[in-house]
Backbone:
């Protein structure tokens, strides 16, 4: 993958974007594995959402975005969606593993 400045045309740029998107998907897979692992430590289904943790996470992600020169509002909204999706997946995983036990 070439650096942005080394790209010689749209094909180079598209290859790089596709590569980065693939990495993002892989990172989301890894993140989900941790989300599911966390379900082992949640004593009840109602303990899964952990709103106090979300309250800590979103401002931090917003700050990271600002430091990276990205749109902080967009990134905070994106992470809110990711977090809520992960919570829903963790609930499903928690239920499935408790049913098997």
Residues:
């Amino acid at each position: 993958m070439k650096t942005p400045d080394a790209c010689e045309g749209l094909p180079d740029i598209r290859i790089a974007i596709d590569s980065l998107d693939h990495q993002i998907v892989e990172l989301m897979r890894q993140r989900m594995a941790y989300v599911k692992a966390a379900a082992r430590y949640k004593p009840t289904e109602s303990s899964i959402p952990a709103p106090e943790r979300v309250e800590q996470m979103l401002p931090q992600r917003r700050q990271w975005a600002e430091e990276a020169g990205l749109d902080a509002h967009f990134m905070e909204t994106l992470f809110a969606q990711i977090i809520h999706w992960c919570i829903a997946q963790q609930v499903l995983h928690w239920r499935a593993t408790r049913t098997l036990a």
Notes: The chain has three helices and no strands. Helices lie at 10-38, 51-67, 72-100.
